[in-house]
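Hi everyone, sorry if this is the wrong subforum. Our group has a chain we'd like a structural model of before ordering constructs, and none of us has done structure prediction before. Sequence below.
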Amino acid sequence: MSKARDSQSHMDTQTWAMVLGLSVLWGGSFFFVEIAVEDLPPFTIVLARVFLAVSALFMGLKILGLRLPRTWAAWKVFLLLGLLNNAIPFSLFVWAQTHITGGLAAILNATTPLFTVVLAHFLIQGERLHTLKLLGIIIGVFGVSVMIGLDALGSLDNNVLAQLACLAAALSYALSGILGKKAQKLGQPPLVIATGQLSCGCLWIAPLVFLVDKPWTLQAPSSSTVAALFGLALLSTSAAYFIYFKVLTKTSATNLLLVTFLIPISAILLGALILGERLEPNQWVGMIVIGLSLAIIDGRLFRRK
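Answer:
Right subforum, don't worry. Here is the predicted structure as tokens:
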């Protein structure tokens, strides 16, 4: 039992590589959304992202000869995952970013592992809240704050509802990470779990789109927006969630959600490479601090000493 718990508490090189890849895919979503919002309202982008992603995953299921389960026990989990991992956080963050900066939203999103480590302590056997792990997560949140820039914190006194929405979205991600870990007990491949989750995500999001955005009144999007939506769906959603559930089979929910610290790094690097944005000194310092936090949480450096 102790060996099994240890393997879930620490990540090997292959798992770290998948987490880094996941951060790039999710970090790239900022680039795709930046293009798409020029033509489409937020919730329509969310629905298009989920619908296109699940369509691609269904093709994957057909090619591999896999089928979605027909039991209520499985679909009950899929419905909860679609709500907690897609509909609620996607919608809350998109709505919040119409009132606060994306930098502030990213800082608040980095609280996800803090929620997770506390919830996992009570809800998942073997994921105890250790002082070293909590210290690493707090340092990681500080690193994200430094990297985004202290000027983003200047709006903390404004738009309280938007900030609460971001925290609620982070809490939703934390709950979905724990539920996703328990979903492994269904005995389904990661591709099946991702497809079931995103299918239910469509069901949750569609009514909101028709009530708020009224997509039938919108003009046809440009070709660049369509390309951005496909990138957002195929790379930042379908491929990302396949990796997400794959990693959950190898490590703890708390460790997996450390990706929220890496997403801003990926977004900044992609912005520098593709959009020609310049990396500021505080962003480099933030990356170093985040690297330190990951080393503390991973724990291997301390075990060797």
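For your construct planning: The chain has one domain: 13-304. DSSP finds 14 helices and no strands in the chain.
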